[in-house]
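Long-time lurker, first post. I've been practising inverse folding by hand and with some scripts of my own, and I keep getting stuck on stretches where the structure tokens seem ambiguous. Below is the full token string for one chain I'm working on. Before anyone asks, I'm not after the true native sequence, just a reasonable design that respects the backbone. If someone could post their per-position residues I'd love to compare against what I wrote down in my notebook.
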């Protein structure tokens, strides 16, 4: 859906949801905590009800899922995650999906970032590879190879290939991905999330042009990481 207020430069990635959008995986958690809070309150357990209410409030905050406007620039690769850029540059060895030299951007998501992940570029999903692993802090470079992760290889309409990898963190124990091989996807659309702190690694062709640098803050679906040639 086009956003006329942005002079045609942006699209809605998904149709707007509700006034208070919550990611689907969080709805059960929030309802359960709300029920427990009500039970504690009825029983007169003030301390427990306040603690449960606080947990419910934080869960609603953590699982928030705001709508995003997505840039329409040709070849633009948008961030798949909210967070801080850990590294951005050329690496001589990419990942299993894209071996050899490539450009890599790593994004760290803290507990306070939106954790819903979005498609970085339109195209067709070639394959989805899940790898079990460890749970070291996602801020460490070794997390890309050692931690539990889920890699998605995407081919653009122009035949370019890029890979984005959901990497579990120190306390993250659940990677959610709604993609499978053969899916045709649009830039900026929601595709999954990682619960409670994690990172996203994006691997681009070596001739791509990066637009971000380490320590920059990015938003999923909105911030441009770079451009494909």
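-- Answer (accepted) --
I ran through it position by position. Result:
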């Amino acid at each position: 859906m086009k956003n006329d207020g942005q002079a045609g430069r942006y699209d809605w990635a998904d149709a707007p949801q509700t006034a208070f959008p919550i990611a689907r995986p969080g709805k059960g958690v929030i309802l359960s905590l709300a029920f427990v809070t009500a039970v504690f309150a009825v029983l007169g357990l003030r301390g427990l009800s306040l603690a449960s209410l606080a947990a419910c409030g934080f869960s609603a905050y953590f699982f928030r899922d705001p709508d995003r406007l997505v840039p329409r620039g040709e070849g633009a690769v948008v961030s798949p995650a909210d967070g801080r850029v850990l590294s951005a540059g050329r690496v001589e060895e990419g990942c299993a999906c894209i071996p050899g030299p490539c450009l890599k951007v790593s994004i760290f998501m803290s507990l306070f970032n939106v954790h819903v992940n979005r498609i970085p570029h339109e195209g067709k999903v070639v394959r989805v590879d899940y790898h079990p692993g460890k749970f070291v802090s996602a801020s460490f470079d070794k997390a890309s190879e050692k931690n539990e992760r889920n890699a998605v290889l995407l081919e653009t309409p122009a035949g370019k290939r890029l890979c984005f990898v959901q990497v579990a963190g120190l306390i993250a124990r659940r990677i959610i991905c709604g993609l499978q091989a053969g899916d045709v996807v649009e830039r900026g659309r929601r595709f999954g999330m990682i619960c409670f702190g994690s990172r996203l690694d994006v691997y681009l062709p070596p001739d791509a042009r990066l637009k971000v640098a380490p320590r920059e803050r990015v938003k999923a679906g909105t911030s441009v990481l770079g451009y494909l040639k």
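A couple of notes from the structure itself: Residues 24-42 form the longest helix (19 residues). The chain is about 15% helix and 35% strand. Happy to go over any region you disagree with.
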